[in-house]
Amino acid sequence: MAQQNDEKSIGMNILSVLFPIVGYIVYFVWRKETPIRAKSILTSALIGSAIGILLTVAGG
């Protein structure tokens, strides 16, 4: 099996902010194979969720 590159992924982080559910799913799929990348994606998904909640509360 080839060694995977375990670096932060800008594209997946942006996708996770825009669609947090995707970030949560990707985190649980990748957490053992690429833990650094998975944790970064989880953080982005949490930020996206917080932004969504804030916009919902502020919007009424």
Uncertain residue ranges = none
Q: What sort of overall outline do the alpha carbons produce when their principal axes are compared?
A: elongated
Name the helix and strand elements from N-terminus to C-terminus, one letter apiece.
Answer: HHH
Please work out how many helical segments DSSP would assign: 3
- Structural class given helices, strands, pairing? mainly alpha
Instruction: Output mean pLDDT.
Output: 91
Amino- and carboxy-terminal Cα gap: 51 Å
Strand content: under 5%
**What is the β-strand count?**
0
Give a description of the structure:
The structure is a single chain. This protein has 60 residues and is mainly α. It has helices spanning 10-18, 20-30, 35-59. The mean pLDDT is 91.
Write the layout of secondary structure elements.
Elements: H1 10-18, H2 20-30, H3 35-59
Entry keywords:
60 residues; mainly alpha
Concise synopsis of the structure shown:
By secondary structure, the chain is mostly helical. The protein contains three helices and no strands.
